[in-house]
Amino acid sequence: MAQRTFEVYRGSEVxxxxxxxxxxxxxxxxxxxxxxxxxxxxxxxxxxxxxCKAGKCGSCSCEVNGHxxxxxxxxxxxxxxxxxxxxxxxxAFPVIKDLVTDVSQGYRNNASIPRFRPRPRDxxxxxxxxxxxxxxxxxxxxxxxxxxxxDVCHVLRSHRKHEEFIxxxxxxxxxxxxxxxxxxxxxxxxxxxxxxIGYCNITKCCTEVCPESITITDNAIIPLxxxxxxxFYDPLKALVRLVRRG
Length: 246
Description:
The chain is α+β, with helices and mostly antiparallel strands. The chain folds into two domains: 2-101, Ubiquitin-like (UB roll) (Roll); 104-235, Alpha-helical ferredoxin (Fumarate Reductase Iron-sulfur Protein, Chain B, domain 2, Orthogonal Bundle), CATH 1.10.1060. Helices cover 37% and strands 15% of the residues. It is built from ten helices and seven strands. It has a five-stranded mixed beta sheet. Strands 6-7 form a two-stranded antiparallel ribbon. α6 crosses α9 and α7 packs across α9 (216-232). The protein starts with a strand and ends with a helix.
């Protein structure tokens, strides 16, 4: 049985610091296992979110050595045997306690998205559609709301614009609705004004950290940006609207 050194953030948004722990580790352990062992042997009051421990609930998101990770899917063997492993809360969100952050603004942003609105059923075949028509919408449904993409997004991480910009997690949710072939809701005005899609400058950092391998930038955000541009900034359409008003 080997020993590893961990540095774990302890405290709140206002006051906190890294505390060092030496624990015995077993082969095959992940970072969340180590956090649980620290709780069991050294710090019973250490706060951390987790649920499924299978990479599907998105609850255990933290930063491991400065990189947004699901701690239940991050193996200790990914790091050198002598390397100290540092576990800190997600930087983009206010800290409640230790590794637990306040992500409630995200749920308020989610509630602001115009709901899915299907077209009326066809008289003959209901909502029949081809598989190729729904593949992009199905990709968006893989999102586990781990908020790693929110954490790495510079608009939220560096500039704290949680109220002005809903972030990649909920642009994925919006794309899941809008790319569905039977959806008829026009979300262009919402994306432009309330969702703040203009803040995104498509650096693709959100795609890089997604544990479900959703191509967030290319398959969700860019198609939504195109709809906003077509709706509000297309010069030909603007001319047509001007002529009609005249």
